[in-house]
Design goal:
about 160 residues; 11 strands; alpha+beta; single chain
């Protein structure tokens, strides 16, 4: 499935009354879902789907899914990680001229937007699944992140 087909599906999904759409084709899996009270669609895809999509854009990656080994850092029991839900470029602010969503030391509530990830020209919000204080930012603004890669460490409480 190429970028044009995905854009066409997204446009049709956007104009439809559907709330969720899931498409699986070989090792490619794509999910669209609409959030309550929002006119924008959210794209969620697995690491393989993002890898396959990126390959279709001609960025020179090989067609086999690749695994990036992350050094395992010991995490304390009261520290949770906020991980990337998809492959893409992470940004800590909604735009270059706006302040960051959250900085190290900021308090975060469950459901707060902590950053965005751009994938295939779409901006996807990353929300916190825990309440606490951001104790560590593990990636740089504008860097590429892999699926399930830790972005933040949050001290619970």
């Amino acid at each position: 499935m190429d970028e044009k087909e995905i854009e066409r599906l997204l446009d049709k999904f956007d104009r439809s009354s559907l709330k969720n759409l899931e498409l699986a084709q070989d090792d490619f899996k794509l999910k669209f879902s609409k959030r309550e009270g929002d006119d924008h669609a959210v794209v969620e895809d697995s690491a393989q789907a993002a890898s396959a999509s990126t390959n279709g854009l001609g960025h020179g990656q090989n067609s086999q899914p690749t695994t990036v080994e992350q050094p395992e850092t010991p995490v304390a029991q009261n520290v949770a990680e906020i991980k990337a839900p998809l492959v893409g470029v992470v940004y800590f602010a909604p735009s270059p001229d706006k302040p960051a969503f959250k900085k190290q030391g900021d308090h975060v509530e469950k459901g707060d937007v902590v950053c965005v990830i751009e994938a295939m020209k779409m901006i996807n919000e990353v929300k916190s699944d825990v309440t606490g204080t951001i104790s560590n930012i593990l990636v740089e603004d504008g860097s590429m992140v892999e699926y399930d890669q830790p972005i933040f460490q949050v001290t619970k409480g």
